[in-house]
Amino acid sequence: ERYVAICMPLRHAELCSTRSTMHCIIIIHGFSSVPCIVVLSTFFASASFSLYKQYKICAIKIFMLYRWQDHVISAVQEFYFLIMVIIILFSYVKIMKVAKAASGEDKKSSWKGLRTVILHGFQLLLCLIQLWTPFIESTLLQFDLMLFFHVRLSNFILFGLTPKCLSPLIYGLRDETFFHALKNYEFFGLYKRNV
Q1: Domain extents in the chain
Q2: CA 4 to CA 26: how far, in whole Å?
Q3: Confidence band (pLDDT; 50, 70, 90) for 138?
Q4: Which of 76, 94, 107, 160 is the most buried (most CB within 10 A)?
Q5: What angle do CA 168, 28, 72 make, to 5 degrees?
Q6: Contact 37, 44 (CB under 8 A)
């Protein structure tokens, strides 16, 4: 959407309509659900009844009864990672070229646009790293259970929540009204604690 909005602004309303967005979401969910459906259907077809009565940690590893399932999931995750890196690099290189051409000789405007592109790129990098966290977590699950829980929570906060909160926080801090309200709230909070 950002690529279309910046590089093809005249076609933005046509390409980013509600209908085309819904189609894209359905396609993305369809592709991303295939590995889960394969793993779950294989598990339900071949798991013994005694396995259902055991207490296990809720992780995708417990559904993988065969070694090939682990390889398939790893290959699919790496494929997703590669496709997303290619799309992001292509989009952001084009966006940076258009932003630089649009700003012309105005260095301040150019730097402001570049900072925004870098911010969005950093957000997407954090989202991409989230695709690698299952590999780390599955390795830790074999060694130390408490470390697994701590790393899993940290991964969720760093790579699940942070990218979604980063833009609103930064754009909120740029807004003078919000910044002053936050500053007054923090000052009032410190004053109240000291009293």
Answers
A1: 1-192
A2: 19
A3: confident
A4: 76
A5: 115
A6: no
